[in-house]
Amino acid sequence: MSIGLLGCSNQLKEAKKNADAGMYMYEDSQSLEGDDAVKAGLKWLFGILDETNLSEKQMDSELLDKRNNVFHLLTDKYMMTEEQIGDISGIKDDNKRNEKIDSIYIPIAIKLAEQQKVAEVKKLEARTQKLSDSEPQIGMTQQEVESSKWGKPKKINTTITKYGKSEQWVYDNYRYVYFDDGIVSSIQF
Predict the structure, then answer these.
(1) Angle, CA 44 vertex, CA 38 and CA 45 arms, to 5°
(2) Contact present, 28 and 37 (Cβ < 8 Å)
(3) pLDDT digits (tens, 9 = 90+) for 89-131
(4) Cα separation, 78 vs 106, whole angstroms
(5) Phi first, then psi: what are they for 52, rounded to 5°?
(6) What is the pLDDT of residue 112?
(7) Which residues partner with 168 through β-bridges?
């Protein structure tokens, strides 16, 4: 093996190792709250791009996949354009790059928060629709029972003891739902 190929192989191994370490740090950064997760995540992803910035000849399919995964995260999760990615990747000074990331992460964090809210609302709407088609079940909350086929009760009987609060919800046709501390514990129909 020639010295040139040996050097290429060592560069490839080092790039893979650094990409793996960077991805671990990226995933760890996502446990941070809100804007901090976005800012730290972006910085780690661009660091991975730096570490995997080899020529096509020097990369193998594994490293190329890792690099493509980073681009996928930047474009899909963080909604960045290829132009934005190229602009930031082109900044070689770490301080200037971090300043640039700091200047763009807030709008990205806002977009991500909006997407998350929309997803949560859709999930809640789907659950509510599913509940409206179902019978009351043990383990449901009072709100879930109200959203079920049975709806709101005709009457509520409440008992408070040293062990907590129990309720009996009374429905037509001798149907009853019993709650212990707001959770369905039994159903009679």
Answers:
(1) 85
(2) no
(3) 889 898 998 888 888 877 887 888 888 889 899 998 888 788 7
(4) 11
(5) -105, 20
(6) 81
(7) 157, 178
Task: Tell me how many degrees the CA angle 22-50-116 measures, rounded to the nearest 5.
Answer: 55
The neighbouring-strand residues paired with 155 are 170
Distance CA(135)–CA(184), nearest Å, equals: 12
Q: Which residues of 59-90 are buried (b: 16+ CB within 10 A; e: fewer)?
A: beeebeebbeebeebbeeebebeeebbeebee
Residues 27 and 92: their CA atoms lie apart, in Å, by 23
Amino acid at 161: T
Choose among 48, 51, 52, 49: nearest CA to 26.
Answer: 48
End-to-end CA distance of the chain: 81
The pairing of beta strand 164-171 with beta strand 175-180: antiparallel
